[in-house]
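This entry is passed on directly below:
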Amino acid sequence: MNTPHSLHQAAASAAEATALLQDPAALRMVTKPQLRRFEVSALLSNGTVAETRHIAPALPLFENAFCAFTRGTLVQTDMGPVAIEDLWPGDMIATQTGEYQPLIWKGSTSLVPARADSKGQTHPLTSFMADSFGMQKPMSCVVAGPAARLLCTPPHMRRDASDKKLLTPVQDFQDGMNIFETSPPTVVDMFHLCLPQHAVIQVGGLEFETYHPGPNALKLVSYPIKTLFLNLFSHADAIADFGPLAFERADAAI
């Protein structure tokens, strides 16, 4: 898949985003989706890094690819913990299996968590206080975005003690004390990461998943939306290119 390398091509992506609103399904909507700017750094097959900007609808399909971690979040690499904004495609990320995978894609966007979108929905964050899950889990406060999932099953979702771990949305862990919702009224920079294979990584001492859209993410979307979405990823021409999920997701197990 070709990746735009200039502002001119980024502008073309913006035009494509406008064109998708001509999709009959979108035209039937009472409220058209807002547009949001997304920034991508991707490792290309020739070893170079492409930095691009995209304009796309502020829909869950797109926002979930960018809104997992806040600026300052520490990700474990072969060089130790590195702030997520300082990661660069090609950096080696430590995974839950003890292996390292290269970072091939980093996406970022900015949003105001307390500001409601066209449907009246906000984008609250989840704050994990230090030691919420035990000693140094996390090591210090970790603030995760609405798209983040932890490899852990909350007690209220377990059938018995032998239940396997599931990739669970961070919202399901909120207890109002050590883990709570927060909605800053100011702009927050959000990030997500993609590795060659879907994996669980160490983020601030907790086990979070890397980005994967899910095997059925594009089943019910129009062709223009599908094309616009896949243009965000230079390594993927189809959902199958993201590979299988490393672990089952809680929302798929219900």
Observations:
- Residues 63 and 147 are 8 Å apart (CA to CA).
